[in-house]
Sequence to fold (453 residues):
Amino acid sequence: MKSFVTPLLTSAALTLFCFPSFALAQANSATDIDALVGAYHQTYGFTGTVKVVQGDQPLYEKSYGLANRSFAIENTPTTRNSINSISKTFTAFGILLLVENGKLDLHKSIGTYLPYLTADWKETVTIHHLLTHSSGLPRESGVQAHDELTLKQQVMRLVDQQTLLFNPGSQYGYSNSGLIVLGALLEQVTGKDYGAYITEQVLQPMQLNNTGYYRGRNVVDRQATPYRMSSTGLEFAQRSKHYGGNAGGGLYSTPSDLYQYVRAIESNQLLSAETTALLFTPHIHSGETDAEGYAWSIKKFGDETLHFAAGSGYGTKSVMIRAPESKDFISITSNWGNTPILNMLADIYLTLKGQSITPPDANQLAKPQDFAKQLGSYKFDPEQLKMHIGMDGDTVTLQAFENKLFLNDELMAAKGADVIGLTYTDEFRVQFQGKQMLIQINGNELRGQKVDD
Fold:
């Protein structure tokens, strides 16, 4: 279920990487990072693997929690997880291989290569626009979770019917629709399906033995089961956002393989240095200090430039950053959809740089035993929920899991006597009066009535 506080969560996430300039101190030991990651495990229930490299020397790698809760199978460094939108970087690399071989021109229109396109924009949108998320295509295509459409079918049935939101190249606008087109382009030009091309031309030459491409519902060895909290309790989740061709989020990997992937890119063994540089060139601004390369984001952390890629699915999250000058690297893969992975990444990075951070504290969480009488579902005015917290439906559920308190899928913190709220903001608070739940957000109060058992 969609988080009922998405606007607040998005706002918080966007501020995570706006650090002021600071002098880099000597990095703390792996012990400090271990304590930090352990705090995320204890507080937020993080499950997955973290890998940290300093100056191209391994510093820390550890797995937490269960890959499969039904059979109590633990996560390990070789457990595979969906990497969701990090897959886009593999698609971009595959496109550049064809560019370097003279089979594609970055600045030719997509209609040059896909004769079945009929949309007006086929002659104005270029491969460059698609790689930089500046095509003007909408964020989503309309593909559904149960769909098993090929990439060509997705283009013809969905993307070809879409209209542009802005003129190509005029601004940044993240677009999964654009990656569908790029995947179909790879297939059209090579005569191979996307997964076969990426496997043969990228994964195998780079010897990424724990990285692969999902094919429908086919079983993957050592694949972690994705989990998430929902309004009805703990759920296992779909490993990718749909079962069809997926050039924007269809790969799985491990943090160690992602590090090997980055090293392979930097080695220039498959692409020339000149072509590789296009991946990390700031082609278009996407924020005050952020820019977009080809499927990679270029971010500034103080005086340091970082190459950033991240992904999020129904029950999985993944992220990696590479500092090309210091040769530092951090990657996290998680099969717990409620992991605050961007906060976690930022804290690990600052710890690596010797900065002081305040780790998560499980003692700040609300205790289920203190709200035992309030556990259950509450009915609200659906228009009020939609207006103030972006939630569809009319029911909010207070529930306990692993000795933690959740409001729908959001972990609750103690905010005072008989008051709970979100862990990352004070703008959302919850109190109870008899059988009523009172939600206070941005000066507004919403009242819900408890549903009798």
